Amino acid sequence: MNNETVAAEDEPEIIETLHVPESASKGPISHAMFRVQRLHKMNAAQLLRKVGLYPSQELAMMQLWDRGPQRQADLVTILGSDAATMTRTIQRLEVAGFVRRRPCEADKRVTIVEPTAASYALRDRVEAIWAELEARTTRDLTPEQKANYLEALTVIEGSLSTNPTRKTT
């Protein structure tokens, strides 16, 4: 091996912040959100890789652990996904042995997704990963800043969830 320093596998890779291009100057918050989301997802992916999951798969598992078996269509709605993406997610989780799909007894057209024993064995590790991700994400924020940031994100989520054609005054 040469003299280069190699980062440990569990340490996040340092990534330079993107320069805000002049053409994005009318959307500095949107540009910042894009940058933060990208880095957050990269950190999540790195941590989740340790348990054989990809980002967003853990979100489906969290819903199944908390709510029990669900219609696949309900997971789409709950997670704000689309049917094709959820189908791929559930297929991958099924191949990994974390979920089982079965037809609904009342309506054979409906697919029920349920967590397996293997997924329940994974729950504590996923919860620890989310705690680590939260610590990485907020390590330089005061408790007041964390509360304000969470409040701002809630307001932004509400803004983005409303009908985009509705005029604001």
Per-chain topology:
Blueprint: H1 28-49, H2 57-67, E1 70-71, H3 72-79, H4 83-95, E2 99-103, E3 111-115, H5 117-138, H6 143-161
Antiparallel strand pairs: 1-3, 2-3
Descriptive notes:
A 3-stranded antiparallel beta sheet has the order 1-3-2. It has one domain: Arc Repressor Mutant, subunit A. The model is unreliable at 1-8 (pLDDT under 50). A hairpin with a 7-residue loop joins strand 2 (99-103) and strand 3 (111-115). It has 169 residues and is mainly α. It is built from 6 helices and 3 strands. Helix 2 (57-67) packs across helix 5 and helix 3 (72-79) packs across helix 4. It has helices at residues 28-49, 57-67, 72-79, 83-95, 117-138, 143-161; strands at 70-71, 99-103, 111-115.
Order of helices and strands: HHEHHEEHH
Q: Outline the low-pLDDT stretches.
A: 1-8
Largest sheet: 3 strands, antiparallel
User: Structural class of the helix and strand makeup?
Assistant: mainly alpha
What share of residues are in beta strands? 5-15%
Mean pLDDT: 88
CATH class placement: Mainly Alpha
CATH topology: Arc Repressor Mutant, subunit A
Rg from Cα: 19 Å
Q: Specify the overall morphology.
A: globular
Major β-sheet strand ordering: 1-3-2
Helical stretch count? 6
Number of domains: 1
First CA to last CA: what distance? 62 Å
Question: What share of residues is helical?
Answer: 55-70%
Kindly report the name of the CATH homologous superfamily: Winged helix-like DNA-binding domain superfamily/Winged helix DNA-binding domain
Number of strands: 3
Which second-level CATH architecture applies?
Orthogonal Bundle
